[in-house]
């Protein structure tokens, strides 16, 4: 099969049993391996879907399979299972090191004085949202606190090293 960046036989053998099978109602599906390699090529290179090389089959098939599997949770399930297998085999190092040499702080984070920002559209001067379509009467600070709590809960569920 095509490029040296396609899935190896060993990678495919780990992935293939996890993929959905055709239900038979819509005819026979194009080879999953060819389509998955096309998706990976597109993600890796950033090529427009219509410019996908012919060796990956019709671009419409690759696009539709990606759309369908994204919508039904297949990609999420594949990621979780492959990560779990790799983690169990000790193939993932969950240690992450971040410092100022790799992530720059915004100048506001350094305590620099700046003019107050103009009022955001949709907020009243007291910081509350205007009520209306999609709006609430909760203060913006309360919404920010709720988002931060949600992010902290999500971060707490991620694997951590000892």
Notes on the structure:
With 162 residues, the protein is mainly α. The chain has a domain at 9-88. The chain contains five helices and no strands. It has helices at 9-15, 32-45, 59-71, 74-88, 140-156. Helix 2 (32-45) crosses helix 3. The radius of gyration is 23 Å and the shape is elongated. The mean pLDDT is 77. It comes from Streptomyces vietnamensis. This is Transposase. InterPro entries: IS402-like_dom, Transposase_6_like.
In angstroms, what separates the terminal alpha carbons? 42 Å
* Helical segment count: 5
Radius of gyration: 23 Å
Low-confidence segments, given as residue ranges, are none
Strand content: under 5%
Mean pLDDT: 77
Order of helices and strands: HHHHH
Helix-strand makeup class: mainly alpha
Overall shape: it is: elongated
What attributes characterize this protein structure?
single chain; 162 residues; mainly alpha; 5 helices; 0% strand; Transposase; Transposase_6_like; IS402-like_dom
Topology:
Blueprint: H1 9-15, H2 32-45, H3 59-71, H4 74-88, H5 140-156
Helix pairs in contact: 2-3
Organism: Streptomyces vietnamensis
Pfam family, one: DUF4096
Protein name: Transposase
Brief rundown of the structure:
Residues 7-78 form the Insertion element IS402-like domain. InterPro entries: IS402-like_dom, Transposase_6_like. The chain has 162 residues and is mainly α.
């Amino acid at each position: 099969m095509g490029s040296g960046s396609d899935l190896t036989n060993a990678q495919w053998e780990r992935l293939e049993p996890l993929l959905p099978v055709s239900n038979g109602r819509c005819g026979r599906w194009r080879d999953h391996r060819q389509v998955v390699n096309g998706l990976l090529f597109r993600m890796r290179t950033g090529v427009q879907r219509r410019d996908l090389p012919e060796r990956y089959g019709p671009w419409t098939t690759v696009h539709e399979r990606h759309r369908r599997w994204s919508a039904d949770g297949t990609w999420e399930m594949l990621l979780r299972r492959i990560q779990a297998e790799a983690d169990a085999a000790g193939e993932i190092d969950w240690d992450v090191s971040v410092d100022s040499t790799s992530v720059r702080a915004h100048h506001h984070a350094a305590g620099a004085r700046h003019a107050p920002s103009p009022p955001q559209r949709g907020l009243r001067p007291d910081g509350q949202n205007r009520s209306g379509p999609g709006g609430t009467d909760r203060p913006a600070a309360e919404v920010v606190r709720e988002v931060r709590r949600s992010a902290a809960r999500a971060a707490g569920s991620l694997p951590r090293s000892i």
